Give the backbone structure.
Amino acid sequence: MLASTLVMHSFIQIPRLSCLIRHAIASPHDVETLTSAISLAESLWTLDPATAIAPIFGSGVTVDLTPPDPSIADVVPTCFQFDSVQTAVLLTRYWMLRTCLCGILQTIHKHFPLESLASSIPSLSTIRSADISAAVKVSQCLPYTFSFAPEIPVVPLRLISTIQTSIGPWYRRALYLEGLGTDRPLADEEARQLDQACRMQDFIVEMGNRVNDLWGIERVGKVILQAVADVMAGGALPEWLPRKIRFQEVDGELMMRVEY
């Protein structure tokens, strides 16, 4: 399927872009790395496979006028039903790609504002809008995702990374609005958006942990997911995050070795 190929063509370049930006921040005099990062960012934004995704969304998605959860009905008033698991996986992967790219682009704007203005990278307002739009769509998929549990728990397991990654846009919006609040009182609309961003983060953490519960996996806290969102957006690597993971045979069993 062309749409799936286009999505993955962009997605596989996201880790490289994240690493390039992280290196450029740590080495501000490395002009070559920064130039490569901005060039790749421009390319990934331009190569948005939205045109290929649109007919799949149009034919494979039905809008249900019920919110995923009453607690977020003011933020996400409807949800999606899909014609197949394959359609759900493809579309959620696309929206995850958008949130990952938008996170990195916001990091570029933050650390390299002049270079951002001189490039074809879109404005911060455009990026933030696309970031939240994709995150909302991921949340609209949750009722469908959990409709297979517990009989077929592999479906929510397959989508857990998308669910947990969608905390990034709401976390970034909260940080932005909290930053505004340090200089002046927030306007009513800004305060409303901050409340929504905080509630959405709590909701996403709980939905991800609901999948963990299905598989007997330890629950993950909000702080961990926020830290991972920073890393994926090109931020510094925290000390607790492994730098290298390898597998080694010990006494006939395959063991995972982690290096920090």
